[in-house]
Each structure stands twice: as C-alpha cells, then as structure tokens.
Amino acid sequence: MNLTIQQIVPEDVTLMEALLAVFGEAFDEVETYNKNRPSPDYLRQLLKSDYFIALAALKEGEVVGGLTAYELKKFEQERSEIYIYDLAVAAAHRREGIATALIELLKEVAATCGAYVIFVQADIGDDPAIELYTKLGKREDVLHFDIAVARGNDKGLKKQSCH
C-alpha cells in the first residue's frame, strides 16, 4: 500500500479542502462540508492555531482519508487532552488500516503536545467505528447532549472571541 499520513500545515490548504470533500462523502453530508466551505484564509488561520490538528492520508497524492482533532488545555492540571472531532476514510479505501495509521500519527502529535489522552465518540450503530476505537482504547459509555446556542448578538458580546 502506497500510503502517506501527514499533518496538514497552513501551506497545504488544498489538502484541507480535499479532506473536507472526503468527510462530506464519507458522512453522507456533502452539503454540510461543501456548501459554505471556509475561505482559504480561514483554513490557514485554523491550521496555524495551537489547538487544531488535521491529518491527511494520501495515496498517490490523493486524499483518501483524514482526521481533525482539537487540543483541549485542562485547568485542573498542566496537561491537555486531544479530542478527535472527525475521522473518515473514503469508501473505496476502507479496511486497509488507514484509520488506525491516522490515529497512530495522532498519538505521536499528542505526545509532543504533552497530552495524556486522546478521546473520541462514536454513534450507536456505527459498528466499524466502535470496533476500531475498541481495538485502540478503553470504552466508556457516556451520554452526549447538544445544547443549542441562540444566534445573534443580543448580549453585546464580541463575535470573534469567547473571552
């Protein structure tokens, strides 16, 4: 298998855009990942940040999978956790060890960040993801809640900052 796994850097916005397309297809959410795609400048700034991690799996120069993750700095101790936000492999390239290879590189990145754990969630019924994550880590059954955020700026808060 001619596979390369690499971290996406700010100069590689085209790789990030290709990864968005892979995510859209893999998650059957093409519109979500492509309709209002961020500008190259936005993606470049995100990739420059110290909290966002993007990895791409390439075969013959084509993005066939990848993951995005966030470093979450902890407050109770000087350490961090890495949260895998999205991980996908194009349908034609599944069951080739690509997702495992992506997580293995993420483990190296996490170690350089001083992270003590990587965590990820999987949807009930997504058996391939559950099987992969069970193979690589310890399962915890938890509940996940989405709390809606009102749109608009009626509280006078600055749009660009959460501080």
How do the helices and strands line up, and which of them pair or pack?
Elements: E1 3-7, H1 13-26, H2 30-34, H3 40-48, E2 52-59, E3 62-73, E4 80-89, H4 98-113, E5 115-119, H5 127-136
Beta-strand proportion: 15-25%
Low-confidence stretches: none
Major beta-sheet overview: 5 strands, mixed
DSSP strand count: 5
The CATH architecture designation is 3-Layer(aba) Sandwich
CATH class: Alpha Beta
Q: Quickly give the structural class.
A: alpha+beta
Name the CATH superfamily assignment: Gcn5-related N-acetyltransferase (GNAT)
Under CATH, the topology can be stated as Aminopeptidase
Q: What is the strand arrangement across the widest sheet?
A: 1-2-3-4-5
What fraction, in percent, of the residue positions are helical? 25-40%
Walk me through this protein's architecture.
The protein has a single domain, classed as Gcn5-related N-acetyltransferase (GNAT) (Aminopeptidase). The mean pLDDT is 87. The chain has a five-stranded mixed sheet with strand order 1-2-3-4-5, sandwiched between helices. It has helices at residues 13-26, 30-34, 40-48, 98-113, 127-136; strands at 3-7, 52-59, 62-73, 80-89, 115-119. By secondary structure, the protein is an alpha+beta fold. 33% of the residues lie in helices and 25% in strands.
